[in-house]
Write a structure and sequence with these properties.
This protein is α+β, with helices and mostly antiparallel strands. It contains four helices and five strands; from the N terminus they run βααββααββ. The protein has a single domain, classed as Heat Shock Protein 90, CATH 3.30.565.10. A five-stranded antiparallel sheet has the order 1-2-3-5-4, covered by helices on one side. It binds adenosine-5'-triphosphate and magnesium ion. The site of magnesium ion has 4 residues, from α2.
């Protein structure tokens, strides 16, 4: 059975925690390990903050879309913005690459997201937006009855 949660949030950093906790609650009935919960929350923080900071440059009038889908033990997360887009995805993926290095940015967000996920995909076009597709396999001892 597929179970899904979709959210559309205003591009405000205050909403990052809402997303993190909503998805954590959504996943919690699947008996994730503490480590899995931490990984999922971290991935979402990095993805949502990137959309707000880089995609929309803090424009609160814009929306970020978040979708979480669970089927069996596979969690798929989609984080999508319709903002600035990424010029050079390969470059952006490099560790320590940031277009805002002066502003407390270490350029490690993508590296973190990649290392914590089982599959990581970026689709992005300049002035169209960015869509991240992240897969996390949950280690479920007990598969839920429903
Ligand atoms: N949603 C997005 N829209 C536009 N550009 C993005 C988006 N996400 C990432 N980028 C670009 O990719 C670069 C690398 O992102 P990454 O998350 O790895 O580092 P960062 O956000 O700059 O720093 P950190 O995440 O360590 O605070 C960013 O500096 C930005 O130029
Ligand atoms: Mg980042």
């Amino acid at each position: 059975m597929i179970n899904k949660l979709e959210m559309k949030i205003s591009a405000m950093l205050e909403n990052e925690g809402v997303v993190r906790n909503a998805v954590a609650a959504f996943v919690s009935s699947y008996n994730p390990t503490l480590e899995e919960i931490i990984d999922i929350k971290t991935i979402l923080s990095e993805a949502v903050s990137n959309a707000i900071i880089h995609g929309y440059e803090y424009d609160k009038n814009k929306d970020v879309l978040i979708k979480a889908t669970i089927e069996d033990n596979k969690l798929e997360l989609i984080v999508q913005d319709y903002g600035k887009g990424i010029e050079d995805i390969e470059e952006a993926l490099k560790n320590n690459f940031s277009t805002q290095k002066d502003q407390e940015k270490t350029g490690i967000g993508f590296t973190i997201m990649k290392s914590l996920s089982d599959h990581f995909e970026i689709q992005s076009s300049v002035n169209v937006g960015t869509k991240l597709k992240i897969t996390k396999i949950l280690q479920m001892d007990e598969v839920r009855a429903n």
